[in-house]
Amino acid sequence: MPKIVDHEARRAELAEAMWRVVYRDGAAAATVRSIAAEAGWSPSALRHYFTTQTELLSFAMEHVLKKATERFHAGDWTGPPRDVVQRMLEEFLPLDQQRVREMEVWLLLAARAPAEPVARTRLAEADDGVRRATELAVTTLANAGLMAADRDVPSETARLHALVDGLALHALLHPDLMPPARLRAVLADHLDDLRRPSPL
Q: Name one Pfam family in it (predicted).
């Protein structure tokens, strides 16, 4: 009788092995060979699931999105709206080792996006999550009277989305210039500035 393989269980096993490699050694170390060794598999068995490095990175990003969603849903979103919005947006900044590694996966996948559709698809999913979070943040501030009346939600959502992405990228590339305390301060300054009438 042929052996029945639970492919979802095997993918979950690979996800955990992959993330151990990424967390310990960085996203660039997540190769077919290193993950196969971590999982106790042969490289040829792993290639049954991932034929290219981009497919592997896409799988890593899928895992990142899953973990980020779990963190988000498990978060404490009670308290003053301004504080809640700050904490919510900080989830998208590399403020600890876990989120630094997640950003590394994002950056490596982004480098492949112009030429590889699978990378573009996964990045679009990640980008949509950040956009929805920034829209929720801006709407929350507006409904709480914490945004000037002449500022509109779509424009401020776009600006905030760009700020969050920019802060995350700068923190990843220049951690000495953008430590966690400065990231939080820049984000806080922007959120507080939304109370003032638009200078435009």
A: TetR_C_6
Give, as one character, the DSSP assignment of residue 184: H
Digit-coded pLDDT (tens) for 103-137: 888 888 888 889 999 989 999 999 999 999 999 99
Residue 1 confidence (pLDDT): 46
Q: Kindly report the CA angle at 171 between 165 and 173, in degrees rounded to 5?
A: 100
pTM: 0.86
**Span 63-92, pLDDT tens digits:** 888 888 888 888 889 999 999 999 999 999
CATH number where 71 lies: 1.10.357.10
Q: Which domain holds residue 46?
A: 1-51
Residue in the structure block whose two tokens are 């590394």? 104
Report the alpha-carbon distance of residue 187 to residue 183 in Å, rounded. 6
Residues 30 and 76 in one domain: no
Q: Tokens standing for 156?
A: 């401020």
In a domain, 198, yes or no: no
Total domain count for the chain? 2
SS3 13: helix
Sequence-separated contacts (24+) of 90-96 with Cβ below 8 Å:
90/183, 90/184, 90/187, 91/133, 92/130, 92/133, 92/164, 92/168, 93/164, 93/167, 93/168, 93/171, 93/180, 93/183, 93/184, 93/187, 94/168, 94/171, 94/172, 94/183, 95/180, 95/183, 95/184, 96/180
